[in-house]
Queue: 2 jobs
Job 1
Amino acid sequence: MSVDKATVAKIASLARIKMGDEELERMVPELNGILDWVEQLGEVDVSGVEPMTAVIENHLRLRDDVVDADPKTAGGRREDVLANAPAAEHGFFGVPKVIE
Amino acid sequence: MTELTNLGVKDIRDGVASGEFTAREVAEAFNAAVAEAASLNAFIVTTPDHALASADAVDAKRAKGEDLGTMGGVPIGMKDLFATKGVQTTAASHILEGFNPQYESTVSQNLWDAGAGMLGKLNLDQFAMGSSNETSYFGNVSSPWRKAGSNAAMSPGGSSGGSSSAVAARIAPAATGTDTGGSIRQPAAFTGICGIKPTYGRCSRWGVVAFASSLDQAGPMARTVEDCAIMLEAMAGFDPKDATSLKMDVPAWEAGLSADLKGKRIGIPREYRMEGTDEDILKSWEQGKEWLRDAGAEIVDVSLQHTKYALPAYYIVAPAEASSNLARYDGVRYGLRDLPDGAGLQDMYAATRAEGFGDEVKRRILIGTYVLSAGFYDAYYNQAQKVRTLVSRDFAEAFGQCDAILAPTTPTASFPLGSLNDDPLTMYLNDVFAVPASLAGLPAMSVPATVNSDGLPLGLQIVGKPFDEQGVLNAGLAIQQRAGFDAKPEKWW
């Protein structure tokens, strides 16, 4: 499988990365080089093999059912949460207008 | 008095504890060495005040007769992938330039709790994506090493290239690294230092900028195996804030160190004899076998038959996870925002990400987006995850016949900066020996073995069973004692 410029443009749009014509042209052979090379995985007989889901056996824990059990990840930290926002307004994240 | 910047973790800790010198003297010496070494570009920001404040706290504790901690008085470099409260954390990207975390990563907090201080935030490949430290928004890092008879700037490896450069140049006694597909071991090998990636889950990922979450693991980089053991002990530990953190006690790795390998079997994977591997590297591998035999180990042949497929599987799995993890950089919550005139929300996302990510990061996001997209998921991503199961199974079978595996860390020694930039694939091949252990979540370490005919360091890699960091460290120690690696880069910076 290989990608053409239109496909790369589609992927870039899915990934929300703006790309001009020149950049798209440049990406086509680079991505095809990588994709051709990973094609070799198709040679491997994987019949009956489960895809890996956890690299080290571990079972997911449930945290204690306590409000704000860990103060670092609990609520009430609006200022910290907004501290690095490029455009915080009135205690919220500001974004360009989305409703006309 | 010995030059303080020549000392490693253990010597500094013990010297501070015994009163041979103060933690402040150590911090001052390293701060000065860091300030002098700007031409290496190893640090993105320096934090001399952090180092001094931690040192003063340790000296004050000593005056009161209190416990100084297992890293008491040791100033270290922190890879700029760990969130540090109040200190800019960028992952070497433009998109996070100016990001000032409101919290501290678990691993860095563990180190401060153990008495360590911070010299600064170390440069790296952007979002840890790269093997030469040439993808950083903040410029290339130079290795302190140079080829005999040449002034060309050499790669310190990547992605933990600031870490490897700083430790090899002796402007930091140790540094944190992170390893997703070789990012601790390959730079350690390139610069003649040690580095260990523990079993997946040993070190908390909380507060570490995510690249590929099923692979990312933090680990120490230092000049000796003992120093790595001490520092890993301080970094590791269960953290309820990381769902994949291992709920296990941290073994006393430092106390458990032993270079006596009697009764141990070391496996040599035949598939690691690959075309394109440097003659000098193959020679050092043979030498490594001799050293381990001399330490009492039995050398056995093992097979890891899917080795060849590990790297292509990695270059599907890691970009897939990255494309998902890096979706968070949207110009809304933190970091860069690029809002062209009249742009709507979607245009803002696309413009911000175009401006904020470097080429290699974009390439991997695109690959990841493609392999996860409808119609291709099974052929690429699922197939790669199945191959990953097979790679992991190979190791499990090999460990039925041996206790640890010995292999080269890299197929070549370091190369000049700029020499491998034309083709992403040739760069990826640097990690061909490192990636299999990453895919299987295994502990793995690089230890310096020798220098090649150009005077550049070569490393040997030990891969261990899950949770057997001790076995890895012990085999590393056996190599260290026999290799007697004492080559140092000549100071030019």
Job 2
Amino acid sequence: MKFDTLIIGGGIAGLSCALRCQQQGQKTAVLTKGQSAMHFSSGSIDVLAHLPSGELVSNPFSAITQLTQQKPQHPYAKIGAEKVKKSLHWFTEKMAQEGLNLISHHDASDEDLNHVRLTPMGLFKATWASQDTVYPFIQQNPAQGLSHITLMTFEGFRDFQPELASANLKALPQFKKVEVDCVSIEMKEFDAFSRNPCEFRSIDISNILENEEVIHSFARYMSMLVKKSTDIVVLPAVFKGKKGTQHINLLKKLTGLTICEMPTTPPSLLGIRIESALKQLYKEAGGYMLEGDEVKKGEFKEGALTGIYTKNYKDYPLLADNFVLATGSFFSHGLKANKTDIYEGVFDLDVEYNTPRKQWRADDFFPKQGHPFLAFGVKTDENFRPYYKGTLIHNLYCAGAILAHYHPVIEGSGNGVAISTGYYVAGKIINHSERS
Amino acid sequence: MNPSIIKKKDTSFDQCLKCTICTVYCPVAQVNPSYPGPKQCGPDGERLRIKSPDFFDETLKYCTNCKRCEVACPSGVKIGDLIAVARDNQGSLPKNPKLVRDFILSHTDLMGSVATPIAPIVNYMTDLKPVKYLMDKTIGVSGHKSLPKYSHGTFVGWFRKNKMKVKQAAFPRQVHYFHGCYVNYNNPELGKDFVKVMNAMGIGVQIFDKEKCCGVPLIASGFHEKARKNALTNIDNFEKATQKLDVPILSTSATCAMTLQQEYPHVLKVDNSKVVDKIEYITSWLLKAFMSGDMPKLKTMNLKVAYQTSCHMEVTGNRLFTIELMKMIPGVKVVEIDSQCCGSAGTYCFKNENYEASEKIGAQLFTNILDADVDIVVTDCETCKWQVEEHTQMETMHPITLLARALAE
Amino acid sequence: MVKQYETDVAIIGGGATGTGIMRDCALRGIKCILVERDDLASGTTGRNHGMLHSGARYAVTDPESAKECIQENKTLKKIARHCVEATSGLFVSLPEDDLDYQKNFIQACGQAGIEAEQLTPQEALRLEPNCNPNLIGAVRVPDGTIDPFRLTSANVLDAKEHGATLLNHTLVTGLIREQDSVKGIHCLNVLNGQAIDIYAKQVVNAGGVWGQHICEYADLSIKMFPAKGALLILDYRINNLLLNRCRKPADADILVPGDTISLIGTTSTKVPLETVDDLHVTDEEVDLLLREGTKLAPIMANTRVLRAYAGVRPLVSVDGDTSGRNISRGIVLIDHEEKDGLKGFVTITGGKLMTYRMMAEWATDLVAKKIGNSAPCTTHTQLLPGSELSLGKKVPKHTASLAKPVYESAIYRHGNRALNFLKEDKQSQAIVCECEMVTRGEIEYAIKDLNVSNMIDLRRRTRMGMGPCQGELCSYRAAGLFTEYSQRDGLQVSKLLRHFLEERWKGLKPIFWGDALSEGEFTYWIYEDLMGVGDIPPYDPNDAIKITVKQPAAQGVKNEI
């Protein structure tokens, strides 16, 4: 089977790239080994929260100039601030088409400023855009305009611990005057599942909440338990998909309360919502999703990748003019580490990393500079094309966490790099195809 | 030439990162609170079961073996296989009348041979309300379900009566056909459609001297030893047949193909390496042939078709072939319904303890199909076909049947 | 200001020996208080192979030790049933090993009273399929495994139920002396800075390697020559029988199954006493363990490594010999009244985990005599709490709502005492640690009844966080429960959460590649990116005492491995 572009990796980078290519008229397919890292993500789009020097960032796009000075090899430096901004706006537009509104601020003031999101520990993390069911706290003063916050959980739900969140929240100087209370809801509709000692995760609660009648029941309980004076009710993210967003809005309407969805430990329904929206757009555009498959071998000829052989399709190669490698970091098996070396998991492309092994990680678990291994990745040229034993593969492009020279956690740039590199690389492919 | 038993154990549970993704995609976990879920039954449970068989949990039987957990797993853990093998090693058969039901539902060769000669009577009886009620109350066959109808006469019977072996051998090219139980005992028409399509391409169809049920319903109900015996017989036959005539072994059943290729070595530990590369699901083989120009003349069909991806077509990736194949039929527009389990899971839905869950699992699929506003539904799996027909009242057929109808005169 | 206690015997050290003495005293009606600077089994006791020796390993080189072992082996299998697994073990001869040694070995076992059965390679492989298939011979012996955390916890439980008191997280800061007598000990609760004086008729120093500091308080000198041993924990039980090499004992030649995992050990490196609280497993040690372990079970080459850890052997010089040549691993019981003219003070050190009960008996005999108690020792016949299962496993059937693996895991860990927390209510059945099946009820029980003050203590009592994910999935959940069941507030518990994750990290660092790296990356994303735990101030165990104690505590409880 032949495609114009074949994307290996179905995470946010791969799907963004695939969507752009497909919508520009290409015949594309996305091949993915399993579900993506979006299943553990916060569901917010982080572009740049801190510069490598540690400075807190307020406008992630204008900070790219400083970033480029500090880290000239950073993916944002290669793309340039304008194009990074363009790609992120493209992304939010696409999500809006699927009913997923990503916002930076409530009052639509400068949409390019960071806000902060509340974490399950009651702390704040800077990010650029969150889903509109997540409350965008103001970066400079998260407590601005708030006098009372309610943290709500479900009886027996292990993955949100409001007491911990409340303690840390109240300890922040800005929240000294803000009342924070914790509330736990118990509804008989959850009984059957909470009896199962193994499953009562966010996904299980979301299945029960798919029923609109249950939402009405939930609204009644909420109204009873939550004080009228509360400004925000923080709920763990337990609403699935598009319908989930609709149900939150229904809940808001029925109770008159402002609801803030908060991501908790996996599975992340906020992240899954983004992935579902991307996949839906991609499929509607005619793209092929080849899920649960794995590349076994690539066929190279004169510095180009001509085809791939996979676990499912065995000796029947999938051919394409262009390929994109967006296979992610270590937990997605894009990058692998044996006792002595770091290597790229599909084609054994050239990787940039430190040696010896001790240099892969810091001594503390929460180091100020982050762990070095998160900045390892495939060596690429200015167009994000990789090398195999020094030879440039000119029709293979890399996007997302497989890239080197950026630190997604410390910088707060994970999704931003994924989306912008996916978009940028799609642009390169489209231009190249149009020319030839 | 006896196929060997594989000694090596699957240790893929070692790679599990506890990401919980599998629990999101398991159709059973979504609807059945008694099922501990793929993570707990698979990789988590395996570490404990290695310690002692006391840690085996009977609720593993609620797994439908749909393999959607494996499709979703980013770490390569063979969750479905782990559960199936655990049931083989440490599970036990029910010590109550349900054993009778499980035996009947899973020993398809035996039941098929007995029922097909008197199919009209059997079919009539199993549809009677009081009979259904009795079966529900005694042996646990869900009274809500209609048992599949038997054909009056088997596919093999038809093949032999019409002296097909000789007739087919006259064609310039040949293939071996693993017909499976569904074609043989329930729907020989599909087998005939297959022969029709092959013949239109100048290819003759041969059947095996002795074909046994692939074993998947036996595995599902815990009769692993019998399944293994069937597997050894089948592989032995495949080896002998391909030695005499080295041509592909094709199957029209999505699940049979998956079982012969993957379940044999992974779950039953039967070494099929000598023949595994020759076994192929029909649309996979056909698409490759069509794309190289080797295709029969097709007429324009002008049909809007909804395609339902069966679970085993998802895990093998074969769905791509069926979809592309249908697109090659002039006038056919394919609407891909969101891939999800229909809830039938083979013999699973007929067991009354599973009925409610199976209904809930498939509910969204049937809505999606009806909303798609199509002419017919196509699916590769026979039990998906029964399930979709029952819940949407829409004509549902195998892609080969569609292709057979599309053959130009 | 200073809290005062009065008792018969004060025991220093919450390892196997100390807790064994605590129990023995209590069962004889002797009032006692045990003081432990960190937590039960946080020292050598919690950092070894967890082997229930048959003694076979010592049969050839140290027959006395061997005899002691087999005796205690049989006793522990009886009294500590839920802490012990009678897996049996194989002494395997590989092609490079001398079969003559096997002959010697079998003979020596016989002489020591250890059942040794010679097996053919095929028989051995049938018993242990993952054993190296190239073996040329094997001997089966009654080795087993013992869980030191369960063991110490059960001893303490029994002691407490007979009137004893446990003060963990309590540091000994000096001895209370009056001329030629020790009258008690000065202590400091490191959690709240509370100064404590315990007046006791006899003080027993069971501080293991740290016992040297205790003796220094009394201006006595016993020289410890700590020997560090590194071990690796594997993801799952790759062997169900212990695998030993049938040759002179050397590095990394024991592969031990233990609950859900297997471990390979160990090495031997002399280390200075000052470093014993800050041990690191080196790359060379990791390589050696993997290399030698794979010889015992080739599947180890493809098995995920969960963590690396190290412990120190309490090797002590017997008679003031500072050269280190005359060091024994045998049991050393010093009556300081006799040896040094210092009344009321006794040191017990050396030995190994599985002879703890015997060591405890000797030490208790000594102090009992001194205080005039003549009750007989019953620790070899009295069952430990949890092991009170009658023969034939007549435990209550699990209920339909409690999944079998959950129920079995609880019984496996706590024996019949699991019934304290195995209840009908769905809340207590919720699983918190999914790798090891630790429920909310078990955590509540541990926090309320088993002297748990932080999440590392909790891990020791329940196995929470000891599975493949090393706390990724359960740490946050367990931290939340901590605020509910303990006296600690959310801010303190947040620090404990960070502390726990840092402790888990220490074991990952030396083996940080492959799945360990992937898991570590995943955990880091969840706890740093999603949660922001890096913004929580680090937990300093000496937080409370920094305010009250000016000089650096003799051995502040620094972060261990």
